[in-house]
């Protein structure tokens, strides 16, 4: 090695061995596992490459307080700096607000991408975590893009696994089973993996399986209840809840995130009316009651008349309709959703049912949206029909 600008202490050139034996250079080479040697003039470059590629640390901390050390004899930086990146495999899953200490550089909070919001369950024991130092907020920012996604471990996002409902076998009158899956928070802020749980409609909420699930009040007869999965960001706990108030359940303490999962109806004895939940890949489902529910049994009304059907708010009712026209007049009945224009039924008005001269008709599995008031409107032109019934067979719920 030639010294630029001339001699140093009377020496203009160092041998390779002398060059590698200088104290600072020697330490840099040795800390990367190399033995200084006069036969390899690239040892310093190899050391620089090692540090440039080696940002992986070992963790010896506890949950929510991570303590990192460089692998082997490699040295940690002298101080935190903006953009500094570290990578590690945690010994413990995070459950809430967390800190991290690198070497002896001091403890720093771990935040989400905004540099302000605390992480919750992002740090996993089954996938590497990558953090970047943010000097403006004096914290490490969690990189959500590093972990491979599974149905239970967060990556960029959890793989979709719909949470399904079914009547509990042991107590079908009161209990609903929620399967394990992935809940997408209905405020769009994130998601969480849930475990299978059974909740009781006839008791107020207590956290855990085989515990009460009703948000407030007491179970009532002839009432629709809406089923939610819920999440506590502080503890990472998930649970499930019933409410009679669609869209706005009374949330238990600490649970601030929710996702709607389906609906159920009680009968005159306050028992859950059983049926079959038939789920689709996108998480929507068709529910079919075991026994059809009668909603209308009378002559067709001559003016537009509201009929409450047995379907949840804003869901698609599945109806069975029967009709017997017992005279020689042509009969027409039109069905419409709430908000649609009322028109007189006739053959040219796309009537739902047409009957003539004692004919008997049945329209099975007729779909119509029940809207927010859970009702439809009907109107006929022949009030002499001796049989006209509307029963609800089930409903379609798109979980939106």
Describe the 3D structure:
It is a single chain. The protein has 400 residues and is mainly beta. It has four domains: 16-52, no CATH class; 56-142, no CATH class; 165-273, no CATH class; 285-397, Jelly Rolls (Sandwich), CATH 2.60.120. It is built from three helices and 25 strands. The chain has helices at residues 16-21, 23-30, 43-53, and strands at residues 56-59, 65-70, 85-88, 98-102, 107-111, 129-134, 139-142, 165-167, 175-178, 181-184, 191-194, 197-204, 211-214, 224-232, 237-243, 257-265, 275-279, 285-297, 305-308, 316-324, 330-337, 353-356, 360-369, 375-380, 387-397. Strands 1-2-4-5-7-6-3 form a seven-stranded mixed beta barrel. A five-stranded antiparallel sheet has the order 17-18-25-20-23, with no helix packed on it. Strand 6 and strand 7 form a beta hairpin. The longest helix is centred in the N-terminal third of the chain and has 11 residues, at 43-53. It is elongated and about 120 Å long.
State the strand order across the main sheet.
1-2-4-5-7-6-3
User: Distance N terminus to C terminus?
Assistant: 72 Å
Beta-strand percentage?
A: 35-45%
The CATH class of the largest domain: Mainly Beta
Number of strands: 25
Which residue ranges are poorly predicted, with pLDDT under 50 across at least 5 consecutive positions? none
Major sheet size, sense and barrel closure: 7 strands, mixed, barrel
- Count of separate structural domains: 4
* CA-atom Rg in angstroms: 34 Å
Give the mean pLDDT: 84
The helix-strand sequence is HHHEEEEEEEEEEEEEEEEEEEEEEEEE
Shape: elongated
Number of helical segments? 3
CATH architecture classification of the largest domain: Sandwich
What structural class results from the helix and strand content? mainly beta
- Predict the CATH topology of the largest domain: Jelly Rolls
Helix content: under 10%
């Amino acid at each position: 090695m030639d010294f630029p600008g001339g001699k140093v202490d009377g020496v203009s050139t160092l041998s390779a061995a002398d060059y590698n034996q200088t104290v600072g250079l020697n330490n840099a080479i040795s800390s990367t596992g190399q033995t200084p040697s006069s036969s390899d003039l690239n040892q310093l470059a190899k050391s620089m490459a090692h540090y440039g590629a080696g940002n992986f640390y070992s963790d010896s901390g506890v949950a929510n307080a991570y303590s990192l050390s460089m692998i082997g004899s490699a040295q940690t930086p002298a101080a935190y700096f903006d953009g500094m990146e570290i990578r590690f495999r945690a010994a413990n899953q995070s459950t809430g607000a967390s800190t991290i200490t690198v070497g002896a550089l001091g403890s720093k909070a771990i935040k989400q991408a905004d540099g302000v919001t605390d992480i919750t369950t992002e740090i996993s024991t089954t996938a590497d975590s990558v953090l970047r130092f943010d000097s403006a907020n004096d914290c490490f920012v969690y990189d959500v893009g590093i972990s491979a996604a599974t149905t239970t471990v967060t990556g960029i996002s959890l793989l979709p696994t719909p949470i399904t409902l079914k009547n509990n076998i042991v107590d079908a009158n009161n209990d609903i089973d929620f399967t394990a899956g992935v809940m997408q928070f209905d405020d769009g802020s994130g998601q969480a993996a849930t475990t299978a749980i059974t909740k009781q409609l006839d008791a107020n909420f207590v956290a855990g399986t085989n515990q009460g699930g009703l948000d407030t009040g007491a179970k009532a007869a002839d009432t629709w209840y809406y089923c939610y999965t819920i999440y506590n960001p502080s503890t990472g706990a998930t649970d499930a809840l019933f409410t009679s108030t669609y869209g706005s359940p009374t949330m238990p303490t600490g649970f601030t995130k929710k996702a709607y999962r389906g609906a159920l109806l009680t009968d005159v004895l306050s028992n859950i009316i059983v049926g079959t939940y038939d789920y689709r890949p996108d998480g929507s489902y068709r529910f079919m009651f075991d026994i059809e529910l009668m909603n209308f049994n009378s002559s067709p009304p001559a003016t537009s008349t509201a009929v409450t059907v047995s379907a949840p708010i804003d869901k698609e009712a599945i109806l069975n309709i029967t009709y017997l026209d017992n005279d020689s007049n042509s009969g027409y009945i039109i069905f419409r959703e709430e908000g649609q224009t009322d028109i007189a039924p006739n053959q040219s008005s796309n009537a739902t049912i047409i009957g003539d001269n004692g004919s008997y008709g049945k329209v099975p599995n007729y779909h119509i949206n029940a809207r927010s008031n859970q009702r439809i409107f009907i109107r006929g032109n022949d009030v002499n029909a001796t049989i006209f019934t509307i029963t609800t067979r089930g409903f379609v719920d798109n979980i939106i």
